[in-house]
Amino acid sequence: MVYSNKPIEYYKEKRKRPDPIVQLVNLCNGLVWIILIAILLITNRAMPPVETVFDRFLGVELRKHWDYQVLQTVQLIMAGLFAISSTGILLNTRRLKRTTDHIRVSLVTMAVFSFVGNVVLLFILR
Questions:
Q1: I need a labelling partner for 27 at 20 to 30 A (CA). Which of 4, 46, 57, 102 fits?
Q2: Percentage of residues in the chain having pLDDT higher than 90
Q3: What average pLDDT does range 20-33 have in this prediction?
Q4: Residue 83 contacts by C-beta under 8 Å, 6 or more apart in sequence?
């Protein structure tokens, strides 16, 4: 008798492709990560530059403070990040019917980080 490593299926899989809600959750998840990378790059632009040996040697004056206008842009983008991740969480909770469905941890993490980041930036930019 020959045995197979294939698991026993007691039910027939009727889904051909992910339904629109799952596709929207996947889209929200991808957008959240793209927006996070954009936030990190823009925040790096707002930071004061680090002084190098050449700057000291040539006597170049560098700014010593953060660029608050760029941080206001970051705050707006973080509000959008919170809205997109909250929408993704809401759609994800509507689609927890099967045992294989799960809550996306990255959406929850981004919602928490964007909320905390908005509160911190609110106090900094005051």
A1: 46
A2: 58
A3: 92
A4: none
**Contact predicate 7/49, CB 8 Å:** no
**111 contacts 89 by C-beta, under 8 angstroms:** yes
Q: Phi/psi of residue 89, each to 5°?
A: -65, -45
* Consecutive H or E run containing 109: helix 105-124
One-letter amino acid at 88 equals: G
Torsion of CA 22, 27, 33, 38, to 10 degrees: -160
HSE-up (13 A, CA, CB side) for residue 86: 10
Cα separation, 90 vs 84, whole angstroms: 10
CA dihedral 30, 31, 33, 37 (to 10 degrees): 140
User: pLDDT per residue over 66-103, tens digit each?
Assistant: 999 999 999 999 999 999 999 999 999 988 877 777 88
